[in-house]
Amino acid sequence: MSSLNMKIITVIGSGLIGRSWAMVFASGGFSVRIYDNQQGQAAKAIKEIKKQMEELEEAGMLRGELTSTQQLSLLSSYDDLAQALEGAFFVQECVFEQLEVKQSVFQDIECLVGKDVILSSSTSCLVPSSVFSKVQNRSRCLVSHPVNPPYYVKLVELVPHPETTTAVVDTTHALMTKVGQAPIRLKKEIDGFALNRVQSAIIAESWRLVQDGIISVKDVDLVMSEGLGMRYAFIGPMETMHLNAPEGLGDYMKRYGEGVTRVLNSFGPVPDFFSKGAKSIINEMCELIPSDPQHLSARRERRDQLLMGLAKLKKDH
């Protein structure tokens, strides 16, 4: 199986996620070949990465031990897929979220690489058995689902195809760890993976609380940002319960388990996110943050700056 001693990684797709992956891999000292099927797009991506890296270095937030100049020297752009894949031990696909496109991309890749090259998809909602259904050798395939933006949010969900070997997951886990990500292993595929299933539960109850007139959009967001999110930024829900009772998780369930069950049983059905009532929730959100490109871009920049600061705090502690 592929060894981390091999230094070339190919990133397929030069959009936001592709650029982020390229930066992450370069920060770990890997040579990264960026491919895009649109002429000149991969080269444009490197220019954008250069700007980002220089800003990160100036802010003291550049990842890895290499300077921005050294990391940039590890990046190269390609409009030819075969050339981009030559010598790579790991391929990270980052094309847009359309099943047929991803399937076609991996069919093309498989024809151009050796049998030991790991094929990884960045998909956030397509299970590996669907993404890799047209690949002949599925034992070296898996999903490596990042959280946007991966440069600041380090979690990566490793989701195996039913035929994926343990060695492939182990190598990918080691790679992600080496480049500073926080990989987790799913033992088998499931719709939504782990992160989006947990996130969907939060979305559903937040939506119901607003829909039922219990709380405003602004205040339900504060429940997370100034409440649950404060501790969840450092410890998860299982450890939170474990620490919130004198004698740990078992004690927590003795004390609060019935209450948790009662609340869960009071939850309503899955909300209709496309109903007439949903429009009022959307409008309430848009009153707080207008949905035009200028306002959204400014808020995304603010989000990334805050995540950068949080990442630094977590690193220092």
Short description:
Residues 9-188 form the 3-hydroxyacyl-CoA dehydrogenase NAD binding domain. The protein is α/β, with parallel strands linked by helices. The protein has helices at residues 16-27, 41-58, 68-72, 81-85, 99-110, 128-131, 166-178, 195-211, 217-232, 237-243, 249-265, 276-288, 293-316; strands spanning 8-12, 31-35, 75-78, 90-93, 118-121, 141-146, 155-160, 182-185.
Write the H/E string, N to C. Answer: EHEHHEHEHEHEEHEHHHHHH
Calculate the terminal CA-CA distance, rounded to whole Å: 35 Å
Q: Trace the largest sheet across and list its strands.
A: 3-2-1-4-5-6-7-8
Total DSSP helices: 13
Q: Calculate Rg over CA atoms.
A: 21 Å
Write a structural description.
The structure is a single chain. 29% of the residues are buried. The two termini are 35 Å apart. The chain has two domains: 8-185, NAD(P)-binding Rossmann-like Domain (Rossmann fold, 3-Layer(aba) Sandwich), CATH 3.40.50; 195-316, N-(1-d-carboxylethyl)-l-norvaline Dehydrogenase, domain 2 (Orthogonal Bundle), CATH 1.10.1040.10. The chain contains 13 helices and eight strands. It has helices spanning 16-27, 41-58, 68-72, 81-85, 99-110, 128-131, 166-178, 195-211, 217-232, 237-243, 249-265, 276-288, 293-316; strands at residues 8-12, 31-35, 75-78, 90-93, 118-121, 141-146, 155-160, 182-185. The mean pLDDT is 95. By secondary structure, the chain is an alpha/beta fold. Helix 1 links the parallel strand 1 and strand 2 (31-35). The longest helix is centred in the C-terminal third of the chain and has 24 residues, at 293-316.
